[in-house]
Design goal:
heterodimer; A: about 350 residues; mainly alpha; about 0% strand; B: about 210 residues; alpha+beta; Acetylcholine Binding Protein, Chain: A; six-stranded mixed sheet; 11 strands
């Protein structure tokens, strides 16, 4: 029995790794051809030492095609469609590689026992906000005030720091509330009554994921009377909860979008730049949502496999939630204090 | 039911999660085509580095936003003087993306001199000279040019990427381009997102100039 459980946990971990790799692989095969017809010339494909290097190369290619396409759109209106396609592809790759958005959203979903459905909504909402912020910065800064790049970059930097501080605060709040749940699970482990209560809880969450998909997304934690759950401690339900994640992640605009917008503005095609920015946002949202769904599914798998019979399963789940909350906090602090220097905008 | 086993399972899950989520690696937003000169004093010591960095057209346009030109679309060196000053001042924060070692010890640079921006074929080129704080005679000089955050992708020009100016006749220069992340990708995977070196992963995109003077 003991041995079986260990094997099971091992299997969950391995399965999650494989799920991730499978998606990587699928993307790789899918994108072996350009989305705009024709296979990639073999010479253009670098020797792939890892998915990352490859993603980076694709991303750079798409991004560098954007400026040429905007120029082309000046004389040939149909180039705008190409522009949108490239921007969309760039968005997908952009989010698949680096970026704190998907990490924060995935961790948040896991920590807060959210549904996959809600993860998708959060991903799209935050990407939409991100696009809006970029359009506003350039529209007001460059379009109306004719500010210099330096000024806009300064604004971008200020927003960035505010956004990172928000992520840290958001993570701190999650850690605070999840820590309680984790400690309770630690203490409650031998008590069978608690285990039963949590068993019910799991069933409910699970059922909600897969059977009541059309219910209101914020109904999932209502109607429980098992004493204060971590969710109740996390604050009121509904949109206020998700709003924190949306703003924390979506406030910081993508530097790439700002560059594209300013470039489009200079070419007299600001509207094309705006369209490209939202196409990028859509691509980003799809990738982030996909990763969020994987994260939530991995957790619900863990929940189903480990939480069925005793308090130990609850402990694992509360531990995962606590760990995820901790990740959000670490991310926020790391971004804020520049350990993740890679995610700092560089103003020249 | 042993807690140990549980923790192991938990660790595995956390690992799986961490594997998928926190890739904190950056991606370039600015591309620079660089040409550099290593400058020698008459006594054979290295006195500084002269860079000519051409920005990609998107960034060039972005940088010119809000800067007036008498002739529309044709900025003169004077009209760009202020921007050039802003550029070199901003570069200081990043160590001018130029890192020198003479016989293994790190060398410092002074503030840039002789800097100006040129606008040609809708591209901006930033020219500047970085004087070494103390000119050195080195048997082996190593210059790395890269952005450790990889916000900027440095690519040296195909033709004459690096020149030695006034170097002693027996000095030999080798120039090594970055490997586009292919060789470093595995190393990258091992870098934890909170590991201190995580911030330095751009090193694998470094352009390495080595000058050996026996």
């Amino acid at each position: 029995m003991r041995r079986y459980r260990f094997v099971r946990n091992l299997a969950i971990g391995v399965a999650t790794c494989f799920a991730w790799l499978a998606i990587d692989g699928a993307l790789e095969i899918l994108m072996a051809q350009t989305p705009f017809g024709g296979p990639r010339p073999a010479a253009a494909a670098p020797e792939i030492g890892g998915l990352f290097g490859w993603l980076l190369a694709r991303q750079s290619e798409f991004y560098r095609e954007i400026s040429a396409t905007i120029r082309a759109a000046k004389s040939d209106g149909s180039a705008v469609w190409t522009l949108l396609a490239i921007a969309f592809a760039y968005g997908i790759f952009h989010a698949a590689g680096p970026g704190h958005g998907k990490a924060v959203i995935s961790s948040y979903l896991i920590a807060n026992r959210e549904t996959a459905r809600r993860g998708i909504v959060l991903s799209f909402a935050s990407a939409l906000l991100q696009s809006l912020v970029a359009v506003l910065i350039v529209g007001i800064g460059a379009g109306l005030l004719n500010a210099t790049a330096r000024t806009m970059c300064g604004a971008e930097k200020a927003i960035e720091i505010a956004s990172y501080a928000l992520i840290a605060a958001f993570g701190a709040r999650l850690v605070w509330s999840k820590g309680g749940g984790f400690m309770r699970a630690l203490q409650a482990r031998p008590a069978p009554a608690m285990a039963v209560a949590h068993h019910h809880d799991h069933d409910h969450d699970h059922g909600h994921d897969h059977r009541h998909g059309d219910d209101h997304v914020h109904d999932e934690h209502c109607g429980h009377a098992h004493g204060p759950t971590p969710d109740q401690l996390a604050g009121p339900g509904g949109w206020q909860r998700g709003l924190g994640a949306i703003v924390a992640v979506g406030l910081r605009p993508c530097s790439g979008a700002i560059l594209v917008l300013v470039f489009a503005l200079a070419q007299g095609l600001f509207w094309a730049g705006i369209a490209a920015t939202f196409a990028m946002g859509l691509g980003t949202a799809i990738t982030v949502a996909a990763i969020a769904v994987i994260a939530v599914s991995a957790k619900s798998l863990a929940q189903r496999l480990s939480g069925a019979s005793d308090g130990g399963g609850t402990l694992i789940l509360r531990g995962i939630e606590f760990g995820a909350a901790g990740l959000v906090l670490l991310f926020g602090l790391g971004l804020l204090f520049g350990y993740l220097a890679a995610e700092r905008v560089t103003c020249l | 039911m042993k807690p140990k086993r549980r923790w192991l399972g938990l660790l595995l899950l956390a690992g799986a999660l961490a594997f998928g989520a926190p890739e904190a690696q950056a991606h370039p937003h600015v591309w620079i085509t660089a040409r550099s000169e290593v400058i020698y004093a008459p006594d054979g010591s290295v006195s500084g580095v002269r860079h000519a960095w051409t920005f990609d057209d998107m960034f060039s346009t972005y940088a010119l936003q809000g800067i007036e030109a008498r002739t529309k679309g044709a900025w003169s060196r004077e009209e760009l003087a202020e921007l050039a000053k802003t550029n070199v001042e901003s570069l200081k924060e990043f160590g001018f993306f130029t890192f020198a070692r003479a016989d293994g010890s790190k060398e410092k640079f002074l503030e840039p001199v002789d800097y100006y921006l040129e606008y040609k074929d809708s591209l901006l080129t930033l020219n500047f000279t970085l004087p070494l704080k103390t000119p050195v005679k080195a048997r082996s000089l190593v210059l790395d040019v890269f952005d450790r955050a990889f916000f900027i992708d440095f690519k040296f020009a195909d033709q004459e990427p690096v020149r030695l100016v006034g170097a002693p006749a027996d000095c030999r220069m080798t120039f090594q381009r970055p490997n586009d992340g292919t060789a470093g990708a595995q190393k990258l995977g091992e870098q934890n997102f909170l590991g201190g070196e995580g911030a330095n992963y751009g090193a694998m995109f470094a352009n390495k100039i080595t000058v050996d003077c026996p």
